[in-house]
Amino acid sequence: MRKLLKKSGTQKPNSKKKIIESLDKEFSKYIRSIGHCEKCLRGKSTKLETAHFLTRANLSIRWDKDNAVCLCQECHRWAHKNRELFRLFFSSIKHPDELERVEKLANQKAEPASIFLMKTLLKIIRLVNSTSGRKYEVTTEY
After folding, report:
1. Mind listing the pLDDT tens digit for each residue in 123-132?
2. Which residues span the domain enclosing 60?
């Protein structure tokens, strides 16, 4: 069985790398849709980026909204250079329960990547469909 992501009748390749890139792109759009830097409050006139509290190398929390904030480029660079200050800032804008949940997820044994990616893909499809005019669907081919 081969699962594909379809938009407007076009099929996207089903490689792990392509799925991760697609999820990253949609997740980043969702986080940046806040419209301003959550640290300095600069608006859309500046380039906004998605910054992660815990490393995005961990797939179980890579696309978790409670593990990300919207920052301008300058504040994102600051976050990477000042990890402890960034942790304090992040903790000041997120609820302690959210941080605890994300840290707990990060420390759990992960399920197989293919299963995890499909579950995450479905979550992000639902999220994007509910917050934008885009309509994605998941189809199955044999």
Report:
1. 777 777 777 6
2. 2-141
